């Protein structure tokens, strides 16, 4: 993979992410990976510093090159919200009508 130089603005954004005290630790790790990669660090050193593997370095540097900072945010599919069923609603209503709090 060819290394691309970060612009001043990109570097500033990544460093801001890394400086946050109450940020997402995974996002900070990914940002640090991209900065180290663009600074010319070898994969061996990045793996050692971040305790990661080659796939991690490849995945997040490619994601950053394709989408910028937004590419470093991991999107988990999640699941649909659980909608209470009519049976459960009937049980709750019955319980509240029969028992006082």
From TrEMBL:
It comes from the Bacteria. InterPro entries: Homeodomain-like_sf, InsJ-like_HTH. It holds the Pfam family HTH_28. Residues 29-79 form the Insertion element IS150 protein InsJ-like helix-turn-helix domain. This is Helix-turn-helix domain-containing protein.
